[in-house]
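Hi R.,

Here are the chain sequences for the assembly we discussed:
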Amino acid sequence: MSDGLYRIEHETRYVHSGGVSTSQHVAYLTPRTLPRQCVRRHELVIEPAPASRVQRIDYFGNAVDQFTILTPYDELRVVGRSVVEVIATESPIALDAGAPWEAVRDELFYQRGAPYADASEFSYPSPYAVTAPELAAFARDSFAAQRPLVAAAVHLMHRIHEEFTFDPGSTTIATPVTRVLADRRGVCQDFAHLQIGCLRSLGLAARYVSGYLLTEPPPGQPRLVGADASHAWLSVWCPPLGWVDLDPTNDVLPSQRHVTLAWGRDYGDVSPLRGVVLGGRDHTLHVGVSVAPAAEDDAPPAEAGSIPPLD
Amino acid sequence: MTELPLSPDYVVPDGHFDEVRADDGALRQPWAEFAAATELRAEYLSEAQKRVARQIDENGVTYNVYATADGWQRPWSLDVLPLIVKAQEWERLGRGLRQRARLLNAVATDLYGPQTLLRDGLVPPALVFRHPGFLRACHGARPADGVFLHLVAFDLARGADGEWRVVGTRTQAPSGVGYALENRAIMSRVLPDAFHALRVHALSSFFRELRQMLFAGAPLNGGAPHVVVLTPGPYNETYFEHAYLARQLGFPLVEGGDLTVRDDRVYLKTVSGLRNVHAVLRRLDDDYCDPLEMRSDSTLGIPGLVQAWRAGHVLVANAFGMSVLESPALLAFLPPICERLFGETLETPAIATWWCGETAALDDARRRLAEGVIKPAFVDASMEPVFVSDLDANARREWAERLGTTPDAYVVEEFLPLSHAPVWHNGRLESRALMLRVFLLADGRGDYRVMPGGLSRIAGEDRHVVSGQRGGSSKDTWVLSDVPVAPLAPIERRARPRETRREPPTSSRAAEHLFWLGRYAERSENGARLLRSVLGRLTDADGVPAGLHPAFLRACARQNLLEQPPPDSTASAIVHDLTAGLVDRQGRRSLGYNVEQTVRVATAVRDRLSTDNWRVLNRLLQLFTRESHVLDLDDALELIDDALFSLVAVGGLEMAHMTRDDGWRFLSLGRHLERLHFVSSTLGDVAPEQASAGSGLLEWLLELSDSLLTYRVRHRQHPEWESVVDLMLVDERNPRSARFQLAKLAKHVRLLPDASLIDVLAEVEQLLHDCHSDVDANQGELFGGERRLETLLTGCQHVSMRLGSALSLRYFSHVDDVPRSTVGA
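And here is the predicted structure of the full complex:
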């Protein structure tokens, strides 16, 4: 596999039927800098221009932009533009490597005075990725006794991909994962939440990843589902490998075609753009995402681990 | 007398501690002193309890309960006997609670910082990361004053051995302080002899300490900080207390819509623009504080508040994210944490608690389950504590299974038999279970001060549960002193310039409510006078409609007291119509409706009204709270007289007792504007008919505006139209005349912040001038004819409407007019 240099444009527009007098927003639109992901350029364009804007790093290490608009408007446009280099994994993950899943689970379980794994934070139910007996029951078919965790988690991902229908419009963000399980349909967020819920219901740790897919696939490869919008997948805690990404929507282990924006317990921690508006009546939302290969001279190399300053 | 008149039924169940009697049946020492110091015969207690009830009623002490359909406020309940705690016992308890409060603040500092307690295995990660009250958005932030917990409350219960144990912790926005203080205010008046003889610790320094804490911690460089009390609003169960605190502290009581965040700073929307707020004493839960970062469906919060707090620009008491410390499971982990952080033994014990998420604890919990109580480890409003001994075998099995499947979610507590104390009920002293809530305040030097008293709560019929929402009552808590009671030393303050005297800011919302308070109070008063005068005349001379003049009915219809009756209506039909709706507070066509609105808007600015003022309003509302809406004429006239009496008192308090700040200005504007409208329109009602009408109609007109006496003193003859108009329209010394109102309105409008209503002011001044010049130029002859009068009256009515809408547009908040919504992508 080869590395990829991508130019990303993520546009969000709110068109209101009445005037908005003021609004405040929180944006998770800056890609993370990771060992295998280097952010060469990033800018966030906001129209109308905000009266104030701050950037901070959140609890999970994501970059967050918070801004206030005091100019009245009917339409808000927020564009995240980035150039990101993704370095492919050196070799495929050996599915049978690593500890049996029960061992990982037991390590996450609290023992008075025992060492604590940071990952345990992601083993508890969160608002969108709850735990439930039926989720545990569904997961059990993949989690035979003493099976290595990676193999079991990948098996579960296969089953979600096989048994569930990708069906935009069948769910909203408020649809509980237990409903998704019962109806066997949803979109990438639902499948990510579903698998996270399954893993947590077994006592394992899993987190939600928000990001992008390469829009047009390299020659000879199929176009991935969810490529024209922001995408979501999950990451499961598999010591000693660490966090292993799984994309149940496409049944793949993300490598050089996935760009990571942010992670958290679930969608609620990292939704790309949310806000509180005063006035505005109804609104329609338009989101467009494109991720295309970029030429090297588009992007001056950034210092490792740093994000260029905002304009 | 050295006995309590306990009823034969005063029985404390086996295994429960008796607060008043020792094992040998003799009164415990403080109770013996109490009994010696006061008259405790049943008749006396009964009388004292009545006085307690009357005070609660008059002071309008309420505890709102969401569940009640019949009106949204329920009177607070206070028992006539206090809980008495000896000095030594309190000293020891207080020391332990101070340690516990320090410990919780240290735990908060760690959880929202380095999290070493998690890394070292002293706090199970589930208790933090699973808890909805652990707010990741607040991690890493340091409060402006370094304090996370400014006010902490502990719920205590006394076990069978007589030892107090902590059974609950309130760290988010503890309630009860205001009720405790109000209980004290009442009890020190109802049982003054005992109160003084026993040397009870005073609570009065509490407000000073709280105020100083907020002042000292508020982030600003120089000058006096602005502090607000943030409430969810009048429908909250403890709204009484929010208003009470705000009034006692002298801070504005604000709702979320009154605040806005710009550039990470918090501002109050006042009638003179935005004013920076440096500290927020909040009674709003975390979830509702900031729709941007907390619950997005909340309409109560302030978008950006959390960011302003993170940036260190505002003190929020308590800090966000503190409800994580309220988990009952944490009680089991605090002793080793205390050893680790302080190298001390935790002094005051907590109720024995097993968090089922720990394997060893789950085994213990299972063994003790039959005698235990199951509670949710995390916030779960839908779950009541489960008393396992009350369950049948099936239910027990189900619970045992549930603890196995989701052990993290539950704690099992030992069953703690609560101590019992006597309460006055049904004319005798009965025995009831009791719990005590104690309050601690950060002292700014890393320690806490214990309020020497607290809120004792007593159970209702339910033997286990003590809760304000489930019936039950309260007691004042008397902490005795070994030495003569002296005021406590003030908290040390950080160096800061002296607080300067200045006008408290008036929020736009408060201004709007005060304006309407003025209008509704005046409208009610006018309505009452109108009804009294009309009913009085209709019943003269054996029910013959002696003075039934169309102008009366027009006036009644315009004041919304009556539908315009058909021309051939009999007097008795009209009397019936007027009295029938009198007390109907729902129907808009009634005096009761206006009175209800008066009290409703007053409730929303309760922090600005004195206790006396509130008492009068409360009495007024009670006049209209009747079983039946049907009144006979005598009852109706008596009610109207009583109502007028109260309404006049409201007006008097307004003039004699309220500070002349911006808020008062809006109240006064409302009142004069309403009065101007009333006097000009009633004159207008009579004007077309004055030639044909006799002196009766003119007398009625004078009576309506309370000017009959003035007229008689001046003229000593039957009223004449010209003189009546002179008195009611242009006499600048008559406080009911149109001209008087115009002069007041002009004065107030000139003094409004920003003086921006120039156009309307010009109109008011022109009218004022017209009234004046007409009188001078046309002595004897009226205003150059009736047409001129009509123009003036129409002008008055027009200007009152125009001014009303101009004020509203320019100064009021319209928080309800602009919908706020959340958007997501």
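Confidence is low (pLDDT under 50) at residues 302-311 of chain A. Chain A has two domains: 4-87+270-298, 101-254.

Let me know if anything looks off.

Best,
T.
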